[in-house]
# Entry
Amino acid sequence: MELTFEQIQSITCGAVRYTVESDGITFHRFTQAQHEMYEKLDAAFFDKSKTSSGVKLCFRTDSRMLYLDTTVRNARSRTYFSFDVLVNDTLVGCLDNFSDREIPRDYSEIVFPVGRFGKTFNLGTGMKTVTIHLPWNKITKLHKLCLSDDAVIEPIKFEKKMLVFGDSITVGFDC
# Structure
């Protein structure tokens, strides 16, 4: 079953707004006014402000599988990315652009591919909590998020919210 925009919005944490187009959803962590401020301030900061850093999808489900279909675009100097999928706080897999190759010690200047990527994840049986961490360094558009047909999906509502200010260390640059 393909999740609707309303379902995806209900399971999203860390985004203050969304851009919905015919081919997908882009998550924004800054308001429109903040984006406009960055655009006037500096082109590099403006691109960085469009990344999905700190955005995650978090929900409970009985689905045995999850399919993620997304497009990533560069916004920072590092071109690698990873969508990390966790079940009950245990990493079950990643959708990335680097795990299929040998990485030299100095990976910082390697140009990894961007574009459209998709992957299916095995979530196991029973009810579980699923968390998908979006990349910290990419502009991401979610085309599809699919679960098993007739799966239950329950948004997780957190009691508290946290606002974090910082620089590259805060965002996890080169993690």
About this structure: Residues 14 and 162 are 9 Å apart (CA to CA). Helices lie at 5-10, 32-41, 43-48, 168-171. The mean pLDDT is 90. The first strand starts at residue 12 and ends at 13.
